[in-house]
Inverse folding.
């Protein structure tokens, strides 16, 4: 049996087992799906599985599997409305069958890319999009289907509804935490770390003294530094930016110093034969060679900055900010609002990281890791 087809066989077996052990929900369910809806779900999953075994192109097979997997999952989750916590074994068997069809869909997409040697952006993004969608589907199934208490883990649908209903509040929190504290601290921390790294490369005394201190400061618990910064710089965004500066300064320093030694001895000797000065060698050889290290620090700092600003807001802030909202809403047991803030922070951090990664590809296009990608 081909690696790409065993998921379909197992999905068909699960659908048959679900059919034998119907209904989908424990009785008496308040709003059970009609027999017609249940039949449509079963037929959709089974038909998509059987059609996928017919001779056809990988693209058409992937389309059939995609419709069967996600159409079946959408209908199953729709039937949960009013029946939370009452899903029976057939419901979970059908969700597992849809998941296997989605798995096989991803296998077909990977095969399409491998055969066509395509770098199409849509195909490249489709696989992580399907994977992310199924994390949410399985999360929704576990919370609403199995009846997990809302205060322990709200379903993604409730978190999404909270995000839509709290856009003004979330916008104010993002403006306070990200556009003020994170961006200011990130720019100051990375810029100062880069400048000091250049000085440390030029002055051996600084290099020998700062790098051990950098390792020590990197081990400092930010949960202890944050209240000190609040006492020094006040409750507004400046104290959070100071925490971000501390968290981002030394990763940039250490990575830049290491990157400045990345150029080979032959290249440095060649620059000396041209009678290049220190600054000419730095600008034309050593800094370009250090760019992968510098961008590595920028990517690391993009996540550290967001974490540092949010944690710092736990210790004093105006009545706005992502950390402030998380700490207050969890005390009120508004868990969906806490998860909404977490989701927005994760999205902002991903966009920030992705923008830096795109800039890295544009600047370091010559590097073997980029050419190979």
């Amino acid at each position: 049996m081909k690696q790409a087809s065993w998921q379909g066989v197992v999905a068909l077996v699960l659908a048959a087992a679900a059919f034998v052990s119907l209904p989908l929900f424990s009785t008496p369910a308040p709003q059970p799906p009609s027999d017609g809806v249940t039949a449509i779900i079963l037929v959709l999953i089974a038909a998509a599985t059987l059609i996928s075994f017919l001779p056809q192109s990988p693209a058409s097979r992937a389309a059939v599997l995609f419709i069967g997997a996600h159409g079946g999952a959408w209908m199953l989750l729709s039937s949960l409305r009013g029946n939370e916590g009452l899903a029976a074994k057939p419901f979970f068997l059908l969700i597992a069958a849809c998941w296997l069809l989605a798995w096989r869909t991803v296998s077909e997409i990977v095969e399409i890319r491998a055969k066509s040697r395509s770098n199409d952006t849509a195909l490249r993004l489709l696989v992580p999009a399907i994977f992310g969608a199924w994390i949410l589907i399985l999360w929704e199934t576990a919370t609403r289907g199995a009846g997990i208490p809302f205060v322990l883990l709200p379903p993604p649908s409730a978190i999404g509804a909270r995000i839509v209903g709290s856009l003004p509040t979330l916008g104010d929190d993002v403006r306070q935490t990200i556009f003020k504290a994170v961006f200011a601290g990130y720019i100051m921390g990375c810029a100062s770390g880069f400048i000091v790294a250049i000085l440390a490369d030029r002055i051996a005394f600084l290099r020998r003294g700062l790098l051990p201190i950098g390792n020590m400061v990197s081990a400092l618990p930010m949960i202890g530094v944050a209240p000190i910064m609040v006492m020094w710089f006040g409750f507004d965004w400046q104290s959070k930016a100071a925490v971000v500066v501390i968290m981002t300064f030394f990763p940039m320093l250490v990575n830049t110093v290491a990157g400045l030694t990345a150029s080979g001895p032959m290249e440095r000797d060649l620059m000396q034969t041209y009678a290049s000065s220190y600054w000419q060698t730095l600008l034309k050889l050593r800094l370009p060679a250090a760019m992968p290290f510098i961008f590595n620090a920028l990517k690391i700092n993009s996540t550290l900055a967001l974490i540092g600003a949010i944690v710092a807001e736990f210790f004093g802030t105006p009545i706005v900010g992502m950390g402030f909202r998380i700490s207050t809403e969890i005390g009120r047991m508004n868990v969906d609002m806490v998860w909404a803030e977490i989701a927005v922070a994760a999205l902002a951090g991903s966009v920030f990281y992705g923008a830096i990664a795109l800039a890295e590809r544009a600047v370091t296009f010559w590097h073997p890791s980029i050419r190979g990608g």
